[in-house]
Amino acid sequence: MSSSRTISANGLEFFVVEEGQGPLVLLCHGWPELSYSWRHQISAIAAAGFHVVAPDMRGFGRTSAPADVAAYTLFHNVGDMVALVAALGEKQAVIIGHDWGAPVAWHAAMFRPDIFTRVAGLSVPPPSRGRGLPLETLRNNGITNFYWQYFQPPGVAEAEFERDVAATMRTVLAGRGFSDPVAHQFVNEGGFLAGADPTRPLPAWLTESDLAYFTTIYQKSGFRGGLNWYRNIDRNWELTAPWQGAQIHQPSLFIAGSKDGVITGLIGAKLVNEMERVLPNLRQKLIVDGAGHWIQQERPDEVNAALIAFLRG
Is pLDDT of 182 > 90? Predict the structure, then answer.
């Protein structure tokens, strides 16, 4: 049975859900998610003989949310995971991330191979640092309505998402849905949620109870913390310059859905095809047929089987 508590680490208070005994496994969620996004993994991995810890990440849910936009770089987030390992009384861990949590996991493995002995990324391929600032590159290519750009001005996306949190969560997780390879990535004049049908039936993997949990937590926390991660995209590019072309040598695993827009776009597909350049010790590249972006919630059985096989090594 999993339990929750608050842990002080890296100057913040982290809400974590944990279960099990054994080697430490950290689960890093993405946007707009919570530790709850790993609800199907926690008990399964714990039963396989591991101490599983899933935090609400910096700025999300019941974890501290610093006011400064600049406090949400990859370095802050990797630092949080390093500090959590120590706060949990361990020296090493396996790190697994989904969506925004995947870049945290990949960079944690890259920056601190002494701590993170294995790494798995879900939905987002390992880092391939482009030639220029990502937001500037979009503008130079004539793109002005990509969702990263819409998220930049503080307060704009927050106002849209917080107007009706229940409708926002229903739309993002199930209605408009990131399972659509293209639709979610470009923002219409009406905003990120424009044109969505919040009355669409929920997919089989998401219950009204699940949705109510996400809604209740986001009604209290708001969306600013998570959006601040996007406001550091260019800063992350600048800060990671010393790791240009670096590889991740630990055993690694990649899992994604075949209908996930992150990996079906031109850039995403290229990163998936070439990820062995970054991951020379890639153990498996699992593309789950028919699945979308919320892979560990949509297809828990396949994801759990792959993760447990990988953890047992």
Answer: no
Q: Assess contact for 192 and 150: CB atoms under 8 A.
A: yes
Q: Could you tell me the pTM of the whole model?
A: 0.96
Q: Is 107 part of the annotated catalytic residue set?
A: no
**Choice among 80, 99, 210, 260 that is catalytic:** 99
Which of 29, 107, 184, 293 is flagged as catalytic? 293
Q: Are 234 and 134 in contact (CB under 8 A)?
A: yes
CA angle 54, 55, 56 (to 5 degrees): 130
How deeply is 46 buried, as exposed, middle or buried, from its count of CB atoms within 10 A (0-12, 13-18, 19+)?
buried
- Residue 154 structure tokens: 């503080």
Q: Which tens digit of pLDDT belongs to each residue from 270-295?
A: 899 999 999 999 999 999 999 999 99
- Catalytic, 99? Answer yes
Q: Does the structure show a pLDDT above 50 at 25? A: yes
